[in-house]
Amino acid sequence: MSKLFEPFSVRDLTIANRVWVSPMCQYSSVDGLPNDWHLMHLGQFAAGGAGLVMTEASAVVPEGRISPQDAGIWNDEQARAWRRVTEFVHAQDSVAGMQLAHAGRKGSTYRPWDGKRTSVPPEEGGWQAVGPDDRAFGGYDAPRPLTEEEAGRLPGQFAAAARRAVDAGFDLVELHFAHGYLVHEFYSPLSNDRTDRYGGDFEGRTRLAVEITGAVRAELGDGVPLFARLSSSDWDDDGWTIEDTVRLAGLLKEHGVDLIDASSGGNTPHPQIPLGPGYQVPFAERVRAEAGIPTGAVGMITEPGQAEKIISSGSADAVFLARALLREPHWPLRAASELGAEIRWVDQYARARA
Ligand SMILES: Cc1cc2nc3c(=O)[nH]c(=O)nc-3n(C[C@H](O)[C@H](O)[C@H](O)COP(=O)(O)O)c2cc1C
C-alpha cells in the first residue's frame, strides 16, 4: 500500500495525500495582485491531484517582495483576489496554503528572465532593500539595516498577513524562513552582525523567527496549521548548520509550528552544494528524528518510487515538488497509477484514467 497517497492530518485539517506543491514565484503580478496566470498555474496542480497547493512567496509588506512583480498579501484587495484561487483549489478537493515572505536584502531585484543580477532602481519600480546589517548579497545594492524597532514590527506584519490569508480562504500558512531572505538573513551568522536583541548568539539571531512564529500562531488560533521553510544549511564552514536547524526547529515547534519544510542554501551567491536526487532529504530526516516534528522533504524529487520511499522509510511526512510539477502538472495522477494507489480524478478528466 502506498504511503505517499495516504492522508496527512494536522490540527483541524486533513490533506488527501503527501504530494505537495512547493512554493514557486511567478513574477507575474501587478501591485502584488494574483491574476489569471496564478489561477491557471495553481489551479492546474489542484486538478492534477496534488494534496496541497502552496502559493509562491507572498510578500507581507511591499518592500518584502523579491521583484516588483511578486505577489503579495499586504492589503485586503490582494486577499479578495486570492479568494478566486482558493475557491478553485477547494472545488478540486485540494487544500490551499500560502507562503508568507519578506525578501530582505534580496528584495528589489529583476525577474530571472530579465537576466540582470543587480538591484532594480526606483525609476523602474524598485526600492531600498532592508536587511539585518549593511552587507550586500552578490551584485545587489547594500541593504539598509533595520532598526530594532522596525524589526520588532515584523511579527505583527506577518500576523496581519496570516489573518488576510485565512480570510482569503487559505487552509494553512507557511513562513518563508529560508533561501537567504529576511528571516534567514537574521538567523545566519553570515549576514547578521547586529549587537541588539536581534543579533549576537543563536538566541539573538533566531529571535525574529521565534517572535514571528508566536505572533502568527496567536493570530491563527489553534485550528489552522502553520509550516516553516528553513534553510537547513548555508553550505559554508562559517555559516548556519543542520545542528542549528534541529535546535531552531525545536524552538519553532514550541511556539506553534507544525511542520518543517527542510530546504537549504540561498544566503551566499555560489555555495558548493552536492546536488543530486533527493539531496536535501537527509535534512528532513534529521529534523524529524531529532526535533520530533513532522517534516516535508524538497529538492530534486522527481520519481514516484523515490517519493514513496521518502515517506515509507520515515525520512519525511510529505514531499514538496517544484520543477517536476512544472514539467508535468498532473504528476500525482501518474504517480498514483504507477504506485497502484487510489487518487481522486476530477470528473472532467476521468475518461483519461489509466
Ligand atoms: C520557478 C521557481 C520559483 C520558486 N519560488 C520559490 C518561492 O517562492 N519560495 C520558495 O520557498 N521556494 C521557491 N522555489 C524553490 C522551490 O520551491 C524548490 O525548493 C526547489 O525548486 C527545489 O525543488 P525541485 O527540485 O522540486 O524543483 C522556486 C523554484 C522554482 C523552480
Name a few traits of the molecule.
single chain; 354 residues; alpha/beta; two-stranded antiparallel ribbon; 10 helices; 12 strands; 34% helix; binds flavin mononucleotide
What does this structure look like?
- By secondary structure, this protein is of the alpha/beta class.
- It has helices at residues 36-47, 76-91, 148-167, 182-187, 202-220, 242-254, 281-291, 304-312, 323-327, 331-339, and strands spanning 8-10, 13-15, 19-21, 52-59, 95-101, 130-131, 144-145, 172-177, 226-231, 259-263, 295-298, 318-321.
- An 8-stranded parallel beta sheet has the order 3-12-11-10-9-8-5-4.
- The structure holds flavin mononucleotide.
- Flavin mononucleotide binds at residues 22-25, 56-57, 99, 176, 178-179, 229, 263, 298-301, 321-324.
- Residues 3-339 form the NADH:flavin oxidoreductase/NADH oxidase N-terminal domain.
Structure, briefly:
By secondary structure, the protein is an alpha/beta fold.
Secondary structure topology:
Layout: E1 8-10, E2 13-15, E3 19-21, H1 36-47, E4 52-59, H2 76-91, E5 95-101, E6 130-131, E7 144-145, H3 148-167, E8 172-177, H4 182-187, H5 202-220, E9 226-231, H6 242-254, E10 259-263, H7 281-291, E11 295-298, H8 304-312, E12 318-321, H9 323-327, H10 331-339
This protein binds flavin mononucleotide.
